[in-house]
Each structure stands twice: as C-alpha cells, then as structure tokens.
Input
Amino acid sequence: MRTALLPLFTRPRDAETNALRAFAAARGAASRQPLDLIVFPESTLTGYLYEAEDLARFAEPVPGPATDRFADLARELGANVAFGLIEAAPAGPAAATVLIDRSGRILLRQRKLSEAPPYVRGRELTHVDPGWGTTVALACGDLFAEGALGRLPGDLRLVLVPMARAFDGRSPDPERWRREERAVYLEAVRAVGAPALVVNALEEPEPGGAAPSFGGAMVVGSGGELLAESPHGTDLPLVFELELER
Output
C-alpha cells in the first residue's frame, strides 16, 4: 500500500489556513502517484490546544464539519484519510483520530486514551480492517500507554500514530531527536509488534508560547526498524510503499 505522511505546518487556532495547507499537501502528494492512505498529525486543523476556552470554541461533533471536509478529500483523491481533531464528545472535549475510507465513510473514531484534563479520555481501543488488515490509532502518548497496549488485537497489522509532540525548551532540536527520542519511538513500535505510521505536526511558534511541535514523520517496521523518515523540524511529505504481512 502506498502511504503519504503529511507533517502539516499548523498555525494554532487558524482552522481555515490549516485546511488549505492540508488539502494542498494531500493533492500534491497524490498528483505524483495514486495513494492508498494519507495520514495527518494530531489536531490537524487547529493545532494542539489545551486551554478550556479554546477547546470549547474548536470542539466539534463526529460526524461534523471537519469530517465532511476530509470525506470530500478522500473521495476526490480516492484514498483513505486519517486526521486528528478536537471532538465534542458527550462528556467533554476529546482528542480524537478519525479514519475515513475512499468513499467518504467514517471507518474509525478513536478518542485518545492517555489524554490529560481538560480533555476527557477515551474508554475503548477500537480497531477496523479497511482492506489491508486490522488497524488501530494510538495518538502520541497512547503509543506508550499500558492501558492502550493491553487492549491491542492479536491480528494487528498497522498502527496510525498522529502526534503533536514538542520538546521542552528548544524545539525543533534535530540533535536531541537523533540522540534521545527517535530510539524511544522505535522501541515502542517494536513492543506493539506491528508497523507504524508516525506523523507529527509542525507548529508555527506563538509569541511567548511554549516550544512548538517539531514536525517530521517516519515509517517503522514491526520489529522497530526505521524504514523511512522525513527530516525533523520540517513539514516535508513522506511517501512510502509499505508491504504488510497478512
């Protein structure tokens, strides 16, 4: 299957600008070759937000306006599309990952299991077979959460890992990524035992704000081997032909 990981350059709270960037990146990747799966980062259209007033402003239902827009994109490109959003769940805002198939149908809605307040946590780990094998979404910290890993299906074939990860202090930091962080993610995927598509947001820094998410993407094999990687600190697309064992 041909996958495209798109580490979107995100402007926090500017959903329209981010949508234009996201759809342009997807169309650009698809113009070079047909794609089976496109994966965007966590909180694709808004950036990762954590203030209660921001969550109240940007949370929306699933299905809703954002899923409708990505469903149109999936139908246009003939590709499955995964993206992150702030979901207006019944109990409160949730960090969710949605997977939409080529026809625009929602296949998977996974609320993050390891999220901290003011987000609410998901309670179940959902899995689906979109045609290439059993797939789950472990957004960012869920890749390391015992509560998530203990629920993985035995026939797991692919893990989607949308992220909005930043370093404390300076971020991006390519040397720290190579020295410390990359190996941690490779080991986490090895423990899961299935290939993973990891894609991180690249956030525009805000004046006086925390260090931004550092971008980049990688494809990791089931044994924790690095199969492909886009540069840390960039929003360069990573297109990769992934062979999944059945």
Q: What stands out?
A: The chain is about 25% helix and 25% strand. The chain has a mean pLDDT of 96. The domain at 2-240 is CATH 3.60.110.10 (Nitrilase/N-carbamoyl-D-aminoacid amidohydrolase). Residues 174-192 form the longest helix (19 residues).
